[in-house]
Amino acid sequence: MKLTLLTATLALLLWGMPAMAGPPGLDTDLDGVHDGLDNCSTVANAAQDDTDGDDCGNLCDANYDQSGTVGFGDFGSFTLGFGTTDELYNHTEPVDDTVGFGDFGFFTLSFGGTPGPSGTTAGTAACP
Fold first, then answer.
1. Fewer CB within 10 Å: N-end or C-end of the chain?
2. Residue 37: which of 24, 50, 49, 55 has the closest Cα?
3. pTM over 0.90
4. What φ, ψ does residue 2 adopt, rounded to 5°?
5. What is the CA radius of gyration of the chain?
6. What span, in angstroms and rounded, lies between the C-alpha atoms of 109 and 27?
7. How far is residue 84's CA from residue 101's CA, in Å, rounded to a whole number?
8. Do 35 and 27 contact (CB within 8 A), yes or no?
9. From CA 109, how far away is CA 25, in angstroms rounded?
10. CA-to-CA distance for 119 and 38, rounded, in angstroms?
11. DSSP helix/strand/coil, 60
């Protein structure tokens, strides 16, 4: 996280604009965050929520055990969060605050895949 803040500060100094903004054309998901600083670069997530602190945004991260692949261990974790307001498992926020069937849909679509992509952790196991 500190590296991300340092990178954002450098961006502010070099580009002379808000630290989370980037030059035109480098914001693939149009959330106002430069792809290189975006923790979920293909899904708009201006808030950059990252509850588990792996530098991979909640809206593209169903890899709860940090193994690099969404699998059965993650499913066990998800079922424990079902019906709660735990931000880690809520992929439909801000539409709703409760982990439910919409979040389960996101999880099942992610199953067997990898989280991300994230411009802040390119190449790491937690969020390639």
1. N
2. 55
3. no
4. -65, -40
5. 15
6. 24
7. 12
8. yes
9. 28
10. 5
11. helix
| Contact residues for 63 (Cβ-Cβ < 8 A; gap 6+) | 54, 56, 69, 70, 74, 110, 114, 115, 126, 127
Structure tokens at 121: 């952790």
- Counting runs of H as helices and runs of E as strands, what totals does the chain give? 3, 0
Q: What are phi and psi of 106, to 5 degrees?
A: -60, -45
Per-residue model confidence as pLDDT tens digits over 84-121: 999 899 888 777 889 999 999 999 999 999 998 888 77
- Integer angstrom CA distances of residue 54 from 33, 80, 121: 18, 20, 8
Q: What is the pLDDT of residues 13-23, one digit of tens each?
A: 444 444 444 45
Query: If DSSP codes are grouped into helix, strand and coil, which group holds residue 11?
Result: helix
With beta carbons less than 8 A apart as the criterion, state whether 72 and 85 touch: no
The Cβ of residue 24 has, within 10 Å, a number of other Cβ atoms equal to 6
Closest CA to 53 of 4, 97, 14: 4
